[in-house]
Structures are given as C-alpha cells and as structure tokens.
Write a structure and sequence with these properties.
Elements: H1 20-29, H2 35-39, E1 45-47, E2 63-77, E3 82-89, E4 94-99, H3 103-106, E5 115-121, E6 123-124, E7 128-131, E8 134-137, H4 144-147, E9 151-153, H5 158-162, H6 167-181, H7 191-197, H8 202-210, H9 215-246, H10 257-265, H11 272-285, E10 292-297, H12 303-316, E11 320-324, H13 328-344, E12 349-352, H14 358-370, E13 375-378, E14 392-398, H15 405-412, E15 419-424, H16 430-436, E16 441-445, E17 455-459, H17 465-477, E18 481-485, H18 493-511, E19 517-520, H19 526-537, E20 543-546, E21 559-565, H20 572-579, E22 589-594, H21 600-611, H22 615-626, H23 651-667, H24 677-695
Helix pairs in contact: 8-9, 9-23, 9-24, 10-12, 11-12, 16-23
Bound molecules: adenosine-5'-diphosphate (ADP) and magnesium ion.
C-alpha cells in the first residue's frame, strides 16, 4: 500500500482533473509540471469589487469594472473598418465593448447570456463603451457583486487561452488543485516562528491567495508568501556563505616588505574609510578560509589603492594575484597606477590584454606559471584556459557585476579557493545588495579623499545650447578640460553613432574651431582610443566628445565640465558614475545634463541629480523608477526570478527574512534539527537546484 502513497502535491499536472495532455504540455512550458507548482502560480491581480460600477453610474473617462451578461455579439462594420462588438447588460444599462484588432481570436469566445467582467476606460458614443477592455468570463457562482468575493486573475498567453486556460480556466484547475492537494499544504515553519514574525499558516495563505475572502486576509496571505520566497532566497545565501567559510584557503597573515614600503611611498594618506577596508581585508586574508568580500564605494573613493595593498599582503606571503577589469582602458589604468608603485619595491606586475599573441604571450604565460610574475592584470584575456598560475592566492574583480558567474568561476578555478576581493562603484541599493550579494561580506567606502571638489549639477534644456557652449569656452580658456557625452543605446547603435559623429564634426569645425576637440567611441580601435585618451590626459585635447566608453575608470584631474546630451536615456546611477569622472582635481566640477527633446516629465527625474550626490539615494531612486532590471544583466541572475516578492518594493520584508534565515543557518547549517525539518524539506524540493547554481559563483 505504501508503494502508492504519494503526496498529491507531487501529482503530475497532466493528471489533475481538468488538465489532460494538451493543457498539461502547455503548462509544462511555463514551468508548471506538478500540482504544487500550479498552486504557486499566483494571480497577477484581482478583480477589485470596490471598483465595480453599475452601468448607469458610469462616468466618461473613468476606469471601472462592469459585471453583466452578454446580450449580443458579432462583427460590426462601419465605412472605414470592421470591428467586433459585444453588448453587455447588468440590469441598469447597456455597455458596448469594442475590439478593433485581434478580432479573429476574440470573436469566438463569447456566448449569449454568459456572465462577464470587463475592465477599462469608459467612452461614450451612442451609449457607454469601452475599447479593448480587459475581460474575464465568470462562472455563475463567481459574482463578486453578490458574494463579496475578490476574484483572482491570472496571466495567460494566446496559446494557453486557446486551450481554455484564460483566467477562468486557471481558476477552475486551481480549484481542483486545492481540492486535490490543499490539505497537504503543511507548514514548513514552526508555529513559534510564525507567531514571532506574525505569519499566517502556509496552507491558509495558498488558499487565500487564489480565493480570497476579503482584502485583509489577502494582504496577510501575500505577506506570508513574500516572506517565504525571500526567506528561502536568504537561506541560499546563508548556506553559500557557510559553505565558503568551510572551504580551506591559504592564509596570508603577515605584513612584509612589499606592503610596508609601498605604504610608506604612497603619495597620500589613506582615508579613514580606506583604512577600515584594509582592516577588514587583513582579517579575512589571515584566515584559512576563503575571503569573499565586496568593496562598494563611489567613483573616486580610492578602491584601487585598497586592491593594491591587498595584493601586496598576498605577495608578501608568497601568493600571486590576478586583477580582472571589464575594459582595456580600465585594465591599463590599473596597470599603470599599480606598476608605478610596484616598480619601487621590485614587485613584478604584468598586463595581459586580448591583443597579445604569439611569442610575447607565451613568454608572459611562462612567467605566470613559474610565479615570476606576481600580479597579473587584464581583461577577460586572463581567464583563458591556458593561463596557469603557480600559486594564485587572490583574485581582484573590478566592477564585478559586469562579469558573469561563469567568467568569475573560470578565474577562481586557477587557484585553490583563492581569496576574492570584488569591487564596485555602482552604488547598489541596499535592498538589491542583500538579495544579490547576500553571500558576500560587504565593506562600504563612504568617504572621498579630502581634496575632492564638490560637483555642481544642472539640468538645462536644449534651447540653452549656446549658453552651455559659452560656459565650456570659458572653462577651457581658464585651462580646464571638458567631456561631452552621447548615449549609445545598443538597439539603435548605428543611428546613435552617426548622431555623435555629426555632433563631433559640428563641435570641432563650427562651434569650437579654436579649440582642440577629440572623439572616442566604442567602435574605434583601442590603440586609437588610447591615443586620444592619452592626448586628453596631457591636455593636448581640451574637449573630448565621447560615448559611454569613459564610464569606468578614467582619471583626468584637470577635467572640470561634463556635458551629457540626451541625458534622459541614461539611468540615474549611470549618470552618477559618469559625473564622478570630473571634479577629481583641485578645481570644482560642473555636470550639465541636457534631456532629449520634449520631455518635461523626464527632466523631473533628472532633477534628482541636481539635488543629491549621494550614490545610494540615487540608486534607490533609480530602482524605484526603473525596476531592478537595469542593475544587473538578467542572465546572471535569471535563477532568481521571483514569483511574488518585488525586490524594489519589499525591502523591509527582505531584511526580516534575511535575519531569520541567517539565524537558522548559523544555528544549524545542515538543517538537521527537528524544528528545521520543514524548511529542509521545502529547500530540497524547491530550491536545491538554485543552490547548485550558486555554488559555481
Ligand atoms: P575608484 O574608487 O573610483 O576606483 P581610484 O582608486 O581610481 O578610485 O582613485 C581615484 C583617485 O584618487 C586616484 O587618482 C587615486 O590616486 C586618488 N586617491 C586614492 N586614495 C586617495 C587618498 N586617500 N587621498 C588622496 N587621493 C587618493
Ligand atoms: Mg576604479
């Protein structure tokens, strides 16, 4: 008998009443293969009873839900076009619903006297009407005007709909799923934990999310399920962290001559924030466990020197260091600034870029494999498989979010659990940080070196172009330099490139004929680009017209003005990074943002840039306005697709969930205690595949 005992939640979806092979296959395609997974297909939204209006109370221009019966339907013709129309009546009046396209698949959905809910903006033309309403076919017992029930609506696709799985179809099979397995929805949390956090039971919450009785319990159910999702995400983080801590790495405990001498020869005093970062890193490097630390700090806060001193500590103890940078310009700059100091103490640094080939490359690889080269700096060229280190002890990853999991892994595999120092100038909103690098230790450098000048930011409209030019002229005459930046958006790259080229010609020939103007963009050869950059650095060029290639890394203390054209096409965080390129010397900086044509609304967004220079605040604002998609490539974090929680909005739930998850794992890393069996079970069935993925990070 026990052979057949199976948790009904694990029943294959095809065998659920009302599904069958055709729907089953379609459901599989959207990731639903069991009853359990169907129950986790949460509604997209709800038919809100508070918004239901009798037809005779409708007002033109408002958005409303109307529930009524289909009185007639069919194709209508005017002289200009055909359209499909249904007329519904709710006893108080009649409403026309019109579809002007998509007619073929909408037209065979309706039957006379069918009960429907429609939603949309009310028009009036020979009576009340809605064009292209959202609509939902209801069952006889599904009438929120009478039952007071809130009705769940599910997202669907054309192919699901054609198999009968529109919202109503989903409601039906989900009702079956609840009957089939609802009783088995046992809670993975103990009642202690639940009452401490204030969570309703799991089973109740799943029932409620699909079939809410009222708004209040629905709210509680949503909270519970969001907490769940974020909790298990944090369990992943906590486990990953515990795993890293267990791994044996070589400790690098001693400060030796390299570090001591370079420290003495630094042309400046470290800021307190840099000293704190070094303290954290020293402690980590001294342990026989892998360091996994992220240094987060605004552009110009001085992360490079922190990376250098971390490297010298490792070199002092006989280890090698790999420094990975996302662009050639940045790799070169790291190389240059590190080499200057390393040469003084005879510490061997080399640079490896994609262009290096043949003999030269072979020799370099040879020296890396014998350990003669102690610090290897480069782009992704340094992660190629034939590069072997003798003793890789530390991996420094600059702008770490620009690298994929696989790239980081290939570099890490060149050593035996080398310590990791990741750096980023992207001020990641706190909410995202705990979700995305929840497994890392984070040090924030929140202080700029004392000589840094404040940057004044102005949003001006394009009709003030002339004034902007005059301002640039004045600054250049005073001996300063200027960036003019154009956005290149990938989809329209060619057009953008052409536009920036045209502008460059105009600027150099017509506007500033007396000034030397340079031009760089992503498509020109790196040799040429570097020539221009070097010329700009030496002040042979005073105005540099550029696309986003200058985004990271460039250090030109004499540049005081940055003009950003079509600024609304950049994210705020990106604008913040760009403007960090100026005001790096002893003169104040000016950032001038020019939004594209006719966007009063967008320049409101840009106003945030005028009012603050706090990178975190800007990042939070960006997240709120644009969602998390812009912060990281979706590929890298695709495994974290959330079903119900919203990373941008559920920060406080995320923090609470993190606290509890870490508490559980700190106390019981393997989830062996009886109180944690429910968590272990759910983790195994639903999250372990993500764990495997995380391990490679
Ligand atoms: P980022 O954090 O953006 O990578 P960098 O490391 O490139 O910043 O540092 C920016 C500039 O500030 C460099 O020219 C660097 O030499 C200088 N710098 C770094 N730390 C200090 C400091 N403590 N005092 C003065 N200047 C510093
Ligand atoms: Mg840097």
């Amino acid at each position: 008998m026990t052979n057949f005992a199976q948790n009904p939640l694990d029943t294959e979806i095809t065998y659920l009443k009302g599904v069958g092979p055709v729907r089953g296959k379609l459901l599989n395609e959207i990731g639903i293969s069991t009853v359990r997974e169907l129950l986790q297909y949460y509604p997209r939204k709800y038919l809100d009873r508070t918004n239901i209006k009798p037809i005779n109370h409708l007002k033109i221009g408002e958005e409303a839900v109307i529930i009524g019966r289909v009185q007639s339907f069919g194709l209508r013709k005017t002289r200009r076009r055909n359209f499909f129309q249904i007329v519904i009546s709710d006893g108080s009046g009649r409403l026309q619903c019109n579809w002007f396209n998509g007619i073929s698949w909408i037209s065979d959905k309706f039957t006379i006297n069918q009960k429907v809910a429609v939603f949309g903006k009310i028009d009036f033309y020979k009576g009340f009407s809605i064009s292209h309403p959202e609509h939902d076919i209801l069952d006889e017992n599904e009438d929120p005007t009478h039952t007071g029930k809130i009705i769940a609506q599910y997202s669907s696709s054309a192919s699901l709909k054609s198999a009968g799985l529109d919202s109503r179809g989903f409601r039906k099979i989900i009702t079956n799923a609840l009957l089939h397995g609802g009783r088995e929805l046992s809670d993975h949390f103990t009642s202690n934990l639940r009452s401490e956090v204030g969570l309703n039971s799991y089973g109740e919450s799943i029932h409620t999310i699909h079939q809410p009785e009222n708004a209040e319990t629905l709210k509680q159910a949503i909270y519970r399920l969001k907490f769940d999702e974020l909790f298990f995400l944090q369990i992943l983080m906590a486990k990953k962290k515990a795993f890293t801590k267990k791994e044996i790495s070589t400790p690098y405990p001693d400060i030796g001559n390299y570090t001591r001498e370079i420290y003495e020869k630094l042309p400046f005093q470290l800021t307190n924030a840099q000293i704190n970062a070094m303290r954290d890193i020293r402690k980590d490097l001294g342990q026989p466990h892998q360091m996994n630390r992220l240094i987060q700090g605004d552009v110009g806060c001085g992360k490079t020197v922190v990376a250098l001193l971390s490297s010298t500590i490792v070199a002092d103890n006989g280890g090698q260091i790999a420094v990975l940078a996302p662009t050639e310009i940045l790799a070169r700059q790291h190389y240059k600034s590190m080499k200057e100091l390393c040469d003084l103490v005879d510490l061997k640094v080399e640079l490896l870029l994609g262009g290096k080939k043949g003999d030269e490359r072979d020799k370099l690889l040879q020296k890396v494999s014998t350990g003669e080269i102690q610090i290897l700096i480069g782009t992704h060229a340094i992660i190629q498989p034939d590069i072997e280190f003798k003793n890789l002890g530390l991996v420094v990853i600059d702008e770490q979010h620009r690298f994929g999991v696989e790239q980081r892994k290939s570099l890490l595999d060149k050593g035996n659990h080398p310590h990791i120092l990741a750096m980023t100038a992207t001020p990641i909103p706190r909410t995202l940080a705990i979700t995305y690098h929840g497994d890392m230790d984070v040090t924030i450098i929140d202080e700029l070196p004392g000589n840094r000048q404040p940057i004044k930011t102005f949003v001006v409209t394009s009709d003030q172009q002339e004034r902007v030019y005059n301002f640039i002229r004045k600054e250049v005459n005073n001996g300063s330099q200027c960036f003019i930046v154009y956005p290149i958006i990938e989809e329209s790259e060619k057009l953008d490139l052409k536009a920036s080229e045209t502008e460059f010609k105009k600027l150099s020939k017509e506007v500033f004929p007396e000034i030397s103007v340079g031009y760089i963009h992503g498509k020109i050869k790196s040799v040429e680009r570097d020539k221009q950059m070097e010329a700009f650095k030496r002040n042979e060029i005073q105005i540099l017209v550029a696309t986003t290639v200058i985004e990271v890394g460039i250090d030109i203390p004499n540049a005081t003005v940055m003009v950003i054209e079509n600024a609304d096409r950049f994210g705020l965080a990106q604008l913040h990074q760009l403007r960090g390129r100026i005001g790096r010397g002893d003169k104040p900086g000016f950032c001038i943002l020019i939004p594209g044509k006719n966007d009063g609304f967008i320049s409101e967004r840009l106003k945030i840039m005028e009012s603050t220079s706090d990178g975190f605040l800007i990042a939070d604002e960006d997240l709120r306005l644009r969602g998390p998609g812009d912060f990281f490539g979706t590929k890298q974090h695709g495994y974290m697709k959330l079903k119900i929680a919203d990373i941008a909005r559920d920060g406080s739930i995320a923090r609470l969930a993190r606290q509890y998850a870490f508490h559980v794992i700190d106390d019981d890393p393997e989830l062996k205690k009886s109180d944690h069996q429910g968590i272990l079970q759910k983790f195994k069935t639903e999250y372990s595949h993500m764990y495997a993925y995380l391990q490679t990070g």
